């Protein structure tokens, strides 16, 4: 499906008719992509039918319904787009033009699929339609480009909301930094908390919607900083208010505010795709990527002896070897590990030189493909750099595992807490040096893990961990110094505890990161599970009151409505292909499709349908899958019936009703794909179930 959407973007980039509409749009969010998928499917159906101009009345009627459904759905979608334009003057002109083009294209498709314009053939009496293929293609392109433009413009509103929310947080943050009394601080921090929850909602939705995994990882890292810093800001500010003349308390507080502002700025850079002076520092060159690129260049020589020069290959290897100095120059690398890395680097140099020698010889005799000597040299070179990567991975992961075991006991943190509580500045200084050494080890280890992480999202997480240890270490020390100066202060003690908990939390995240890196190395794709966001705050959010839907919510409703119309017509079209139109599965599929907007009629259909499905002769594996999906079907139907009884009053109930309608389409799709599986026996039912879950799983 993703490929279909990508092809639609390519189609959308072509001009249509006399329109000067700029449709060269890059789809960057999953919500826009998923909204376009059913539209692409319907348009593809219409265009493909043009290859067979003569059609039966039944097929013609199905195509007519598809065309009309597209036109009606686009009309409703455009109406919402026009409402959004009216509420957002800065988008009025662009949105108005995109809506005009979309409506024009939808009307054109409806006209081209109009049965009344079809003529019967003199030979067999069948109807011939869509003789103007060029017009259909132009209308399809215009529709895709204009609908995409409407969606992308609506997405700008989401970005604007995030920026506005960030600005509110920054203003309140400035007020918090300047407060001088506890009463004023409590009032402003309450407001700050509400604004942070709103910001969390907006950025969390945006993070999940991003297609680019690297941007998602950066967003997750920034939001993790904000999560941890929120509690730090509370205790650090209270400590500074209680002890206004304490320099270490001020330093502690200033560091928290600075880090929060940096994280807020990073979020805005991601959503607006702005580039800062630190952009190039986000992803330093890793050894893993260097080896991957080097091996790719070496193996390309099998197909093209002139794809690069021998000198460039040698230079590429030397740059790769130079990066291993992060391992060999480390004071924490053992002598044996250092010798093993240096030995493998030397072996890679020797194998590369042999390859270059065989390569030059092959070029001298004008060989068109790799010679036998070259083939052997290619294999040896690839193996030697793979061995180097394996050794570096072993060193980095081994050191990280050892550090986590040592730091798991938290001895320096316990000692700092005890020394601070006793007011012993000398011991605080001594254990601060110990913690600083541990911090440097952890920072360096995160840098080594970044070299071998294997994916860009994991590289970003390693960088986030490195920065976190680098910042929190000194903050723990300043909090301990404050406590030592004021050993009877409960708030100073609480503040130190909060920073120590943040350190321990980052160690836990590092352990999870280590497992994910191992998963990637061993071929099991790791997922970023170590970054979470203010779940305890989000769980306490109140239900929205009955108010007028805003522009963003209207956009969401329009997207769901567009999918409803297109998917319903898709069910109709496919059911037309069933040979036995009186079959019970066909009859009930048509019933569900017909009543996607009347949920109450569904109460008796799923149980009876499950009976019919169970009567088919299936092998054990197929029967297990079908029965599992039937259980899901019954559960969804119960949810549908309960929701259908809920009166639509207010924003929350409206969205619940839309979700109910979405579930009804999912039920229709389930029935359809079950029928297709039984009829065609071409694809396992799990394929169709996974396909339909995209719509039902919302």
TrEMBL record:
GO terms for cellular component: cytoplasm. It comes from the Eukaryota. The keyword Cytoplasm applies. SUPFAM superfamilies: alpha-catenin/vinculin-like. Gene3D superfamilies: Alpha-catenin/vinculin-like (1.20.120.230). Belongs to the vinculin/alpha-catenin family. This is Alpha-catulin.
